Amino acid sequence: MKKFEFSLAKLKTYKERMLEAEKNNLGILRRELVVLQEQLQDIFRHIEEKNAELAEKMLTGITPVDIAVRKRFITSRKQDASLKQIEIVRKEDEIARQLELVLELQKEVASLEKLEENQLEEYRALELKETELFIDEFMTNADFRKQKS
User: Fold this and answer.
1) Are the C-beta atoms of 18 and 101 separated by less than 8 Å?
2) Is there a smaller number of Cβ atoms within 10 Å at the N or the C end of the chain?
3) Are the C-beta atoms of 70 and 57 separated by less than 8 Å?
4) How many CB atoms sit inside 10 A of residue 44's CB?
5) Number of neighbouring beta carbons within 10 Å of residue 25
6) What is the pLDDT of residues 67-103, one digit of tens each?
């Protein structure tokens, strides 16, 4: 009997490669999200530092123009933080879509693996049947030879 060969092996290999590529993309997206979150935290720290600096300057004496400039800078950083939060939400949406794609590919690969398992079981059953037929034929021939002798 010929060696077992899964009929959809090429498709399975292709889907496995796609799955790996999409998992890699998901990993990249997650790293990008971490970077964005770190950048947002840096903006918040910077805002806190500038607020503390402004409060200290107000205690020691500062001109109204300097206060206005510093407050404008802080407002600008808050806008940067808002934009960064929007970026984070978009990246999270992108990750969710990518995760759905990965899960779908995992299901497809799992179904192909199950199909391969079933085909292998059928192959083994046929192989066993073929072996039994060979043994029966061998025994019949052996009996026939004994009777002729």
Assistant:
1) no
2) C
3) yes
4) 14
5) 15
6) 999 999 999 999 999 999 999 999 999 999 999 999 9
| pTM metric for this prediction | 0.75
Residue 34 and residue 40: Cα distance in Å, rounded? Answer: 10
d(CA 7, CA 42): 54
Task: Determine the Cα–Cα distance for residues 65 and 85; give it in Å rounded to an integer.
Answer: 30
As a whole number of angstroms, the distance between CA 145 and CA 149 comes to 6
CA dihedral of 11, 15, 17, 19, whole degrees rounded to 10: -170
Cα 84–Cα 88–Cα 90 angle in degrees, nearest 5: 115
Q: How far apart are CA 47 and CA 109, in angstroms?
A: 48
Per-residue HEC secondary structure of 28-97 comes to: HHHHHHHHHHHHHHHHHHHHHHHHHHHHHHHHHCCCHHHHHHHHHHHHHHHHHHHHHHHHHHHHHHHHHH
For residues 53-65, b (16+ Cβ closer than 10 Å) or e, as one string?
ebeeeeeeeeeee
Q: Tokens 């995992």, residue? A: 106
